[in-house]
Design a protein that fits this description.
By secondary structure, the protein is mainly α. The chain contains three helices and no strands. It is elongated.
């Protein structure tokens, strides 16, 4: 007859740190924030710029594109609500 394995005692979970409570870092703190914007950012930003009547800047970094997306989402009423 097979013996049942005993489950190890679980250790209590530590209280959440501020980073755990809000894991989203501001774009200027991203490790990759200075890299060129991603393909999905570029595509969505082009759409938002068109809808907002703004010129698309193809030279934005990931961090800059993220901020511009947030700005244009507010302006156009698209995307997430805050």
């Amino acid at each position: 007859m097979a013996q049942k394995k005993e489950e190890p005692e679980s250790t209590p979970t530590p209280p959440p740190t501020p980073a755990m409570q809000n894991p989203e870092k501001p774009p200027e703190e991203w490790a990759t924030g200075r890299e060129s914007m991603t393909g999905p950012q570029r595509s969505y930003l082009q759409t938002l710029c068109r809808e907002a009547g703004e010129e698309f800047n193809e030279n934005l970094t990931k961090a800059e594109a993220s901020k511009k997306i947030d700005e244009l989402q507010t302006k156009t009423g698209r995307g997430k609500t805050r």
